[in-house]
Each structure stands twice: as C-alpha cells, then as structure tokens.
From TrEMBL, chain A:
Family: Belongs to the binding-protein-dependent transport system permease family. HisMQ subfamily.
Coiled-coil stretches: none
CDD domains: TM_PBP2 (cd06261)
Alphabetized InterPro entries for the sequence: AA_ABC_transptr_permease_3TM, ArtM/GltK/GlnP/TcyL/YhdX-like, MetI-like, MetI-like_sf
Phylogenetic lineage: Bacteria, Pseudomonadati, Pseudomonadota, Betaproteobacteria, Neisseriales
This protein's UniProt keywords: Cell membrane, Membrane, Transmembrane, Transmembrane helix, Transport
Cellular localisation: Cell inner membrane; Cell membrane
Species of provenance: Chitinilyticum piscinae
Topological category with respect to the lipid bilayer: Multi-pass membrane protein
TM region(s), chain numbering: 31-55, 206-224
Pfam families: BPD_transp_1
Major localization listed first in the record, in broad terms: membrane
Molecular function terms, GO-annotated: transmembrane transporter activity
Protein name: Amino acid ABC transporter permease
Length: 245, 253
C-alpha cells in the first residue's frame, strides 16, 4: 500500500471560499484556544470556590458543594452542552431566553466556554478538596490560634499549600479541557475538530487533515504540560510536600 | 484589664463531652494568675490537650465558663479571633507553615491580623529569633530545620503577637532527646520574664524547677492542684502516686 499524502493541500485554496485550507484550521485553533482558556479560567475560579465550600465546617454549604460536583461530574459533557444551548434559553424568563437565542454575541462560543467551565469546575473542585484535606489538621489550628479569621486561614495558610499539592492533577485537567472542547462541535462551534471535518469533506485529504489537527492538539498538550511544570518548579518550597518531588 | 484580683485564666464548672457519652472534662475549676506557670500532667487520654485547647476555644465546651484576662471565651458575643491574639499556643508538632520562611512564619500574623507595618514586624521577629537563638535561620524553610529549631521558631511565632498568655501542649514530646533541653531552656527564660504560662508536659524536671503549680488530670477530673514540691513529695491521691511512679521510674513499676 502506498500512501499518497498531499501535504500541499494545506496551502491550496479551500472550496469553502474562506482562503487556503490552513486558514480553516487556524480559525479552528483560535476557537479551541478561546473556548478552552475561557473555560479554564471559569473552572479554576468556580472549582476553587466549590472545593473550599466542601471543606467548610458548615454542613449546608458543604452539601451544596457536594451536590454541584455530583451533578456536573456525572452528566456527559455533550448532554450538558445540549442542555445549555437548546434547553436553558427555554427555561429562563422569556425575555432573557429570546435575547440568548437572537442577540447574544457568539452564542456557540459563549455556551461552549461556560458549559466546559462548569463541567471542568466539578473536577477541579474534587482536586482542590482533596488537596485541602491532605494537609495536616494542625495547619488550620495553628492559624486560628494566632487570631486569623477562617477566610484568612484559607487564603494565607491552607490554599497556598493546597494549590501546590494539586498542581500535578490540575495539569491533567488543564490538558483535558483542550480535548473536551472538541465536544463543542456538536453545538456548531467552528473549533479545531469541526474545521477538521470541514477540511476532510471539501478536500478529501482525510489523512492529512487528521494528521495536521492531531499535531496541533499534541502541541497544545505539550505546551500546557511544560507551562505547568514551570509553574510547579517556581512554586516549589524547600522540603515541602508536593514541592519536594 | 488584668489586676491581681482577677486571674488571667479561670475555669468555672467546665464540662465537655465528645459525642454523646464521652465526658472528657468533668466539672473543671481552675485559676491561673498573672505571671504564674502551671504545669498540667496526667495519663494519656486524660483530657490534657482538650483542656488546654478550650482556653482559646480550639475546642468548644458544653457548659461552664472560661475567662481569659477578664473576657469570657465561650460567650458567643466574644470576638474569638481578638481573644486568640492574646493567647499564644505552641503545639506538639510545631505546625509551622511549610510554605513560608522562618521570618515570614513569624511575621504573617502580626502583619495580617494586627496590621503592623512589615518593617516593624520584621524587626520584632528578628529580636525574637535572637532570643530563641535562631537569628541565622531567618531565611530557612521549616522542613530544613531540626525539630528543636522548629519548636523554638513556633514559640517565637506565638510571642510575636505579644500575647498575655502562652499555652504549650506537650512542646517537647515530639523531639529527639538531645533537643528537648534547648526548647525547655527557651521556655524557662520565658517564664522568668514573667509570662503567664500553662504547660502540658511530662518533663517533671521542668515542672519541679519552673512551675508555680502542678495540676494532675485523670479521666477528665482535676485530682491534684499543688505546689511542685508538695505534688512530687506528697501526692494526695493513689492515681497521682501511681502516675508519678510510672513517669519517674518507668522501668520499675
Ligand atoms: N476530636 C475528638 N473526638 C472524639 N474524641 C476525642 C477527640 N479528641 C480527643 N478525644 C478523646 O478524648 C480523650 C482525651 O483526649 P486528649 O487528647 O485531650 O487527651 P490527652 O490527655 O491530651 O492525651 P495524650 O497524653 O495522649 O495527648 C481521649 O480519650 C481521646 O481519645
Ligand atoms: Mg494530648
């Protein structure tokens, strides 16, 4: 079998009329980056808050955090995206629903970024919680005994240690969010995988299209991995758990 | 503020349960006057840690009253964070913040809680580090210190808040024997400076030499509260006699 790969296709004008094929993929990359990064910011913020809630000595708040995680972690991402895109606008007050369907800018992108953010937040919350619980109990008591309020105790003593502990598991969640962003093609976001399908359809160069996109995804994963490794090294404390490896 | 008439720490009919049936502190009445050093001892599980932790409300109590420097600690209207600023606490396992340098460990609470300017807080911290003999370790991280050094930093951290009282929960029992002396020396010096101290310890040499009173706790009850020479030479209860035999000559029971 001989593979006749036409790499030059990337430079050829696409049948969609949007310029050469590589610009199709470039657009896809932009949306993938925008969706994954926005989603990640949301996931970190929401996930940290939910993770902290679950460790608080107030039952109702802890329960609220637990429910969030169970709901968002156990429903398939694709179903969640469909829900936010098709069902949510029908559930909210009519005015808002109409705005979402007609006037909201970039509806696919906003829905995908938020949906991916909520979903990933549940996974981040799980990591943050176990990071906090992995710390010796004495740390919290030592802070309280010196007169720190509970919020100060979290901000100054618990979270700086917990985040150091969870950098490695968060790295894989960060890598996952790029891969998971491909699910957004189901609601019509022209992200990388969507564009790959386009290119396959119009150019018939299946292998080249897939190979090009695979390379891009792997480059992204590699960049995230190196970035987080750098962060872990920078945050390392002499002899501390999680920093000593 | 405190006068000689009102004690620095006062327990009035304090009871505490863990869960429903574990009565861990039973009708505790105890006073510690300003400048006094009180050693608390007793068998494992007798409630010593629980007792000392109720003073700054790291452990809540079920009934009774605890007063610290004229303020009722277990009153829901008391600003407990404010009260804790006045009460230093030294733990068995040091509990230094591993992500901060020695200097930052000491200055964190003064800067964040008391809002003391950074340079002033650092100057005070350096004075305290001199006092505990660790000025040269100010930039080290806790994990790179010996246990004895960590505990001396923990004492300096407590003192940096300029507290009225210092509480110690078995401050030397996690240490290798050769490091116990250096920590006890710092505590003795602190006692001589007039600090009010309550110390849970089994270091009977320290109790004999430094304490004004020894309190013996057994199964949540204060069985003895006496001057050291009286406690060691003429204990009133069989439980205390047995305890002293075990602790002073563990090989010959
Ligand atoms: N958080 C808790 N929940 C339930 N029981 C507890 C708790 N903390 C301590 N206890 C129990 O209460 C009793 C008193 O414990 P405490 O730690 O005060 O004793 P101690 O005199 O300090 O003992 P040790 O010498 O071993 O430190 C023990 O039986 C212990 O098992
Ligand atoms: Mg104890």
């Amino acid at each position: 079998m001989t593979l006749n790969l036409n790499w030059g296709i990337l430079l050829e004008e696409s049948a969609t009329g949007d310029g050469p094929y590589w610009t199709l993929l470039a657009t896809g990359l932009q949306w993938t980056l925008a969706t994954a990064l926005t989603g990640w910011v949301i996931a970190l913020l929401v996930g940290s808050i939910v993770g902290v809630l679950r460790t608080l000595p107030y039952r109702p708040l802890a329960l609220l955090g637990d429910i969030y995680v169970e709901v968002f972690r156990n429903i398939p991402l694709l179903v969640q995206l469909f829900f936010w895109f098709f069902v949510w606008p029908e559930v909210v007050p009519q005015e808002i629903g109409r705005w979402m369907k007609q006037d909201m800018p970039y509806p696919e992108f906003i829905t995908a970024a938020l949906g991916l953010g909520w979903f990933t937040a549940a996974r981040v919350a799980e990591q943050v919680k176990s990071g906090i619980l992995s710390l010796p109990r004495g740390q919290k008591n030592a802070a309280l005994a010196l007169g720190f309020s509970l919020p100060q105790t979290y901000r100054l003593v618990i979270l700086p240690q917990a985040f150091r502990v969870v950098i490695p598991p968060l790295t894989s969640e960060f890598m996952n969010i790029f891969k998971n962003s491909a699910a957004a093609l189901a609601i019509g976001l022209t992200e990388l995988t969507f564009q790959m399908k386009q290119m396959v359809e119009y150019s018939n160069e299946v292998i080249v299209s897939i190979a090009a996109v695979t390379t891009i995804y792997m480059t992204l994963a590699f960049a995230v991995n190196r970035g987080m490794a750098w962060l872990e090294k920078k945050a390392r404390v002499p002899g501390m758990i999680g920093g000593g490896r | 503020m405190n006068t000689d008439a009102s004690p620095m720490i006062r327990f009035v009919n304090v009871n505490k349960w863990y869960g429903r049936d574990h009565h861990v502190l039973k009708n505790i009445n105890l006073e510690v006057r300003q400048g006094e050093v009180v050693v608390v001892c007793g068998p494992s599980g007798s409630g010593k840690s629980t007792l000392i932790r109720t003073i700054n409300q790291l452990e809540p109590i079920n009934n009774g009253e605890i007063w610290v420097d004229g303020i009722r600690a277990n009153d829901p209207r008391t600003n407990i964070n404010k009260l804790r600023e006045e009460v230093g606490f030294v733990f068995q396992h040091f509990n230094l913040y591993p992500h901060l340098s020695v200097l930052d460990n000491i200055t964190l609470a003064p800067i964040q809680v008391k809002k003391i300017p950074k340079d002033l807080a650092e100057r005070t911290a350096m004075e305290l580090l001199e006092r505990v003999g660790l000025a040269n370790k100010k930039d080290a991280y806790p994990a790179n210190l010996s246990g004895g050094q960590q505990q001396r930093v923990a004492i300096a951290r407590g003192l940096a808040m300029n507290p009225q009282v210092m509480l110690f929960d078995e401050p030397t029992s996690a240490l290798d024997p050769e490091m116990i002396g250096e920590v006890l020396a710092v505590m003795k010096q602190l006692a001589e400076s007039g600090m009010t101290m309550m110390v849970v310890t089994h270091e009977m040499g320290f109790a004999r030499e430094v304490a004004d009173r020894v309190v013996f706790l057994d199964q949540g009850v204060i069985l003895e509260d006496a001057k050291p020479e009286q406690f060691f030479t003429d204990p009133q209860t069989d439980r205390a006699k047995q305890f002293l035999r075990q602790i002073l000559a563990p090989m010959h029971q």
